[in-house]
Amino acid sequence: MKTIQTLIILAFFLPIKILSGQSTVDSLKQVLESEEDIDKRLSTIQNLIQELNGINWEEAFVYTRQGVAEANQAKHKTYIPEFNEMLGRKFANSGILDSAKILFNKAIEGYADINNQRGIATTSFKLAWVARNESDLELAMKNDLKALRIMEALEDAKGMASAYSRIADNLEVQKKPKESLEYALKGIDLGKDKDVGEEIVFCYLSAGSAYLKLQKFEKALDFYTKAYNQATDFGMKGHLFYIANSQGNALKYLKRYDEAIDKYNELLDWVEKLGISGDYRSTGIANISHVYILKEEYEKALPYQLETLKIQEELDGSRNLQEAYLNTSQIYENLGDYEKAFLFRNKYHAMADSVLSLEKENAINELKIQYETDKKEQKIDVQDSIIAQQQRVQSLSYGIGGLLLILLGGLLYTYRNNKKRNQQLGYLNNSLSNKNKLLDQRNEQNELLVKEIHHRVKNNLEIISGLLELQSARLTDDQSKTALLSSQARVQSMGIIHQKLYQGTDLKRIEMRSYFKNLTESLLDTFDATEEIDVDITMQPLHLDIDIAIPIGLIANELITNSLKYAFPERNTLQKGHISIALERSVDNVLELKYFDDGIGKPILKTAKGTGFGSQLIELLTRQLNGNIQEHHINGMNYTFDFRL
After folding, report:
1. Is it the case that residue 529 has pLDDT exceeding 70?
2. Measured between alpha carbons, how far is 407 from 558 in angstroms, rounded to an integer?
């Protein structure tokens, strides 16, 4: 826990630094507005991004994309790879690893073209980080060692220290903490002889993590604290939040729980102060939940865990969502709510990339057995009561039978027949129960397999999309490049549908409103039009079968693509273009798709150098859905589709 003196120092100096940073940002924005020289503009954007990284991460993201766009437009060989590397890092930090890899590989190609060895090394570090997060440790080590060799050839002490800390991280993930510690200490020793700058912070962090794995928690806390102090001295505000998280982890295992919670709350304060949300916020909340779990205070752990789960679900498939489901299941299990524990354990296993292993099945079955056991015990109590009542009735019957000897034979005959029938019914019930259990197991397996198929189809479509993007980047012919980008958008449209299927609970139907939202975001990103085009999706939630959703999705894809390519030739952030899309079902089971853009309209669109394939595809898909098209082009393009299903 921080001393009072330290808290007072932070209270005085942190606001001053942030205010100073905001003043620098405002000055750089003013310079950028008036600067026309491309070299000075790109340099100003770089400086602006560096300042915003410690103040407003999301705004830094926006200016990074602007830097990529302006560098590409100017065909500036020096800045293109630098901005690709910066944007790739933004995507990597957001968990969008596929896009990050594409941008990092583009950056390495650009650096190689101008023989910038240091740029190749720094980008190789980032590719290694992505590989490590995808559990490809061999590729991660390969890229880090490649960067280390370059830094050694350049006699770059700072780069060598960075390589040591990253290799240490790889070895830690491989569960080799002793070897990891050796490399971390190499970096620290190098920093004693030479100036390695901020990299000493990461070497301290790697050493702390190695000691944590070796269960030497006091030493781990010592190195984490050194990392925190050095980061504070260097003004590394953008790194203090996860260093505080590491300190919290060491304190947690030292059973200094209140101090650990203070550190996790410090992480949350930094996340809010820096404008970072999502995964990083959920890390702090999840760790607070974990502290309460260790203290066996499950009632206190539950609200933090549910907030973690909410954030992870909003991130749509975040890599930590699976762990959040598992922790939620464990909390409910300890609270005795086995039904919810079973529900979240199922969600946890549904996110796995392959069919459930035997060990996972046993874990689920244990919860299921516990849940069903509680229900059976309740039924047994009821049945015991019924049996006791039946025994009283039977005794009364025998008494009456003693008085009414004439009816004894008939009663005995009836009793024996009923007993045989009950036995037969018991056998039938047991048989039906066993069959129902087998059917339930098969249904669960089939559902999981169908989700796995959709997952793999989505992954394959992403690979195809990535290949098309890489191919288009190498083309110089604009028409061919446009055709490849259009094909990439069609592939992405189908990929989003399969992603919705394996992430949802309904394996046959797609919710079209959220699908259109994901589709438009993907297309705006592909055509770099996020800041220039606004899209309104004015419709209620609507679920459609996959056979209908795919052609309608492709039609919407073609319309939006045409608008982005042709309708707004002079788009800018001051005068944005507008697109509207809606899908409704009428009483007589007719689907009506409405689409509008306020672009330049039909007469000018006719002069565009398109292939006509998109229009043919729209007509073909409309006929496939037994539909018709109405087209108007007053103040833009207006389409109405009626599909009679």
Report:
1. yes
2. 85
Paired tokens of 385: 């009561």
Q: Which domains does the chain have, with CATH numbers?
A: 450-644 (3.30.565.10)
Q: Hey, which residues does 637 pair with through a beta bridge?
A: 597
Q: What is the pLDDT of residues 166-183, one digit of tens each?
A: 999 888 888 899 999 999
Report, in angstroms and rounded to the nearest whole number, the Rg of the chain calculated over CA atoms: 32
Cα–Cα distance measured from residue 632 to residue 501, given in angstroms and rounded to the nearest whole number = 34
Is beta strand 533-537 parallel, antiparallel or unpaired with respect to 577-585? parallel
Cα torsion angle, 104, 161, 277, 505, sign: positive
Q: Token digits for 336?
A: 């005795």
Dump pLDDT digits (tens) for 254-280: 999 999 999 989 888 888 877 765 667
pLDDT confidence bin for 448, thresholds 50/70/90: low
Q: How many helices, marked H, and strands, marked E, lie in the chain?
A: 24, 7
Question: How many Å apart are CA 283 and CA 291, to the nearest integer?
Answer: 12
CA atoms within 13 A on the CB side of 319: 12
* Alpha carbon distance 511, 514 (integer Å): 6
pTM: 0.47
First-to-last alpha carbon distance for the chain, in angstroms, is: 66
Give per-residue pLDDT as tens, 311-369.
Answer: 877 765 445 677 888 889 889 999 989 888 888 888 888 765 433 443 444 443 454 34
d(CA 493, CA 212): 45
Query: What is the Cα–Cα distance from 325 to 305, expressed in whole angstroms?
Result: 9
Report the amino acid identity of residue 569.
P
- What does the alpha-carbon distance between residue 122 and residue 85 come to, in Å, rounded to a whole number? 9
pLDDT higher than threshold 60 for residue 577: yes
What is the 3 state secondary structure string of 539-582?
A: CCCCEEEHHHHHHHHHHHHHHHHHHHHHHCCCCCCCCCEEEEEE
The pLDDT of residue 178 is 93
